[in-house]
Amino acid sequence: MVVTLIIAAKQFNFQGLLHTLIIWVESLGIFGPIAYIVIYNLATLLFIPGSLLTLKGGCLFGVFWGSIYVLIAAIIGATLAFVIGRYLSQNWVCQQMDKHPKFKAIDLAVAKEGWKIVLLTRLSPIFPFNLLNYAFGVTQVSLKDYILGSFGILPGTVMYVYIGSLAGNIAMINTYNQPIAPETQIWQWIMQGVGLIATVAVTIYITKIAQKALAQSVAIAEISHLEKPDSSLE
Question: How is this protein situated with respect to the membrane (predicted)?
């Protein structure tokens, strides 16, 4: 069933439909965040990249509330995919994991480190977010550790939401009829630029730390796995 929906999403351009729905969210008032979260969940399950939806969240709700709504939506969507991967689509998920050898190493590491490995993979951009949601369902990680570790998406979420909020501010500035003093506009751009650079720099720094820690954890897990047969012969 899940496979059928994913194929349908690619054939019928669900990504374009979701983009239209996100624009519609803006007219829903207080019900907008709920509709946004539901749409984001659907996109997560259908392997539609969430980066554009995250950017749009910044446009619609600003940095603070946009980050909160995106985080809630992404965690719920990731949890749904995890449950589906564990109980409904194990064979298909395993086939997809065979195409990405890194996932096998992750399975060894997650058996020992639990939520820490989930956290590090969420911080690292080398693992596709949507596939990782399903993939963790067939590993040995518990649902509690999975949810806890999934909060590692926070730095990347804030960065994309912030970028989206800048686009939203630019759009609003263009619609104003009142002229803006050149000095004011320059300072606006400077403050936005400094904020964006700081956000991206922190995200890159955290990502590098995560990649290094993840590589070490995976290497240790693989070494331990290889040593087990030798120790059993003694």
Answer: Multi-pass membrane protein
Report whether 82 contacts 136 (CB < 8 A).
yes
What are the Cα distances from residue 107, in Å, to 13, 121, 226?
33, 12, 14
Q: How many CB atoms are closer than 10 A to CB 122?
A: 23
Q: Residue 39: CA atoms inside 13 Å, Cβ hemisphere, count?
A: 27
Cβ neighbours of residue 60 closer than 8 Å, sequence gap 6 or more:
22, 25, 26, 32, 36, 66, 168
User: Is residue 214 within 8 Å of 103, Cβ to Cβ?
Assistant: no
Tokens of 92: 């298909």
Which of helix, strand or coil describes residue 176? coil
Residue 176 to residue 214: CA distance in whole angstroms: 48
Q: What is the pTM of this model?
A: 0.69
Give burial (CB, 10 Å; 0-12/13-18/19+) of 174.
Answer: exposed
Name the nearest CA neighbour of 217 among 103, 147, 116, 128: 116
pLDDT tens across 11-27, in order? 556 666 766 777 788 88
